[in-house]
Amino acid sequence: MDGQIGELASLIRWDELTRNADLIPAKHVFFVMDACYGGLALTRRPFPPGSMRFLKDMLQRYSRQVLTAGKADEVVADAGGPRPGHSIFTGHALDALEGAAATADGIITASGVMAYVYERVARDPHSRQTPHYGFLDGDGDFVFHAPPLQALGDGGETDTDVLVKLSPYTAPAPPVGESVADTMKELLPTPMQQIRLDDYVSAHVRRFLDGTRAEQFPVQGVPVSNDEFVARLKRYEDVAADLETIVVLLGRWAERHQLPLLEKVYARIVESDKGSAGNGLWLSLGWYPGLLLMYEGGIAALAARNYDALAVILRSHVRADRHSGGDTVPVILPVIDAMNEIGDAFKRLPGYERNYVPRSEYLFKRLQPPLEDLLFLGRSYESLFDRFEILFALCYADADNRPWGPPGRFAWKHSRGLGSNPYRALLVEAGEQRDEWPPVKAGLFNRSSARFLEIANAYKETLDKLHWW
After folding, report:
1. Among 69, 126, 166, 298, which is least packed by CB within 10 angstroms?
2. CA 157 to each of CA 52, 147, 149, 154: distance values in angstroms, whole numbers, following the listed order
3. Taking the domains of the chain in order of start, what are their residue ranges?
4. What is the pLDDT of residues 302-326, one digit of tens each?
5. Do 381 and 372 contact (CB within 8 A), yes or no?
6. Rounded mean pLDDT of 115-140?
């Protein structure tokens, strides 16, 4: 490299390069940067492979795409790649261009190359960098190799569309007829299958992320209405269905050496890009799948008294820009804060207009069928649900260091002052068992019953002020 950091005259500004590139008459331009801090070149992610259905359409649309060796804050390696004499990034990029990123039809596009390089570099055992990629402008695609183009014009039909089936490299389709529950039950208890288990869960996380990307759930230009809210909720749940099964069975059965896998599920979902500009309700609702999966995994963990799994679900540390600017925070903070921003939006659901805690009431009914099917909870479901919501609220209060957490069904039961009071029962249980209380022993509340009781008693004062009944 000829550029010297101490000599600004030896450097080329990125925006100058791109502005000059606008003078190039080419419809498609693809920038590839194997340089430290290259991720500063762009800030938004592209459409993944498979999002543009027609090859002809890709060729007709204007595009300026970028693939960089690392993110904005990363130094990248100059060696150690799959090809001698080349960096990790360049080695995988060359593999992609020479055919590794080709589809079954032999098509190689910039989107396919970017997805391939992103996955391979991020997972390379010698890598300490994560490629960054995106669009500077336009929504076309740079096409390197396209054998199906030969079909254009055959028989005089010069305007015939050629359908190109592009499957995301990061989310292969599951085998037809394979049950997620049966596969998980086969892989979880078998030591020799742990690598396959990791790959299986990771594939489903990637499929979920692909199904919830911004193109599928736009946050701009979509008016807020009750019908749209209901429809989005259902679509999020449909995309998350297989992952729900996975977190329930991990929460129920995961042993200590498998807990990092459970942690990865929540981290990847929470850390995914949910957009930064658009309608506030739709932006916040993008966090709903994280909430849904925390409830299901947490209730499953409580049903099995798997408090180590529960601690992972409630206290895993993630990088969430809305909170930390890059530092890690407990997963519960960004999830609850985002959901709180939608206010009483769950009252938009038919039948929930007059509920005190409509989100809690909705989840109570929504989660029972899948949990019953997988865990056979019977009449214990309601008490497990209340127990989870109490711990959920108190763990938030602990992480946020203030006597508040999202009130659930347990709150109106406490406010009513009649019959069973799950909140009071939990306090009595924790007070009797002290530091031997399972949630504390598992690491919640800094492994201190005194800390728990301090938070729980302060939160009780908040509940005592509720007059919902």
Report:
1. 126
2. 22, 17, 12, 6
3. 8-156, 180-464
4. 999 999 999 999 999 887 655 445 5
5. yes
6. 69
Helix axes 194-211 and 226-253, enclosed angle (nearest 10): 170
User: What is the rounded CA–CA span in Å between residue 129 and residue 147?
Assistant: 33
Q: What token pair was written down for 190?
A: 């078998």
Which of 265, 264, 277, 260 lies closest to 240 in space, CA to CA?
A: 265
Question: pLDDT of 196-236, one tens digit each?
Answer: 999 999 999 999 999 998 889 999 899 999 999 999 999 99
Residue type for 185, please? K
Q: Can you list the pairs that 270-273 forms with residues at least 24 positions away whose Cβ atoms lie under 8 Å?
A: 270/318, 270/320, 270/331, 270/334, 270/335, 271/318, 271/319, 271/320, 272/209, 272/212, 273/45, 273/214
Tokens coding 390: 């109490």
Q: Which residues of 38-58 are buried (b: 16+ CB within 10 A; e: fewer)?
A: bbbbbeebbebbbbbeebbeb
Q: Which residue's structure tokens are 């925390």?
A: 294
CA nearest to 28, candidates 68, 69, 53, 57: 57
Closest CA to 398 of 321, 465, 333: 333
Q: Kindly report, residue by residue over 329-367, the tens digit of the pLDDT.
A: 999 999 999 999 888 899 999 999 999 999 999 999 999
Structure tokens at 271: 């850390």
Measured between alpha carbons, how far is 165 from 152 in angstroms, rounded to an integer? 16
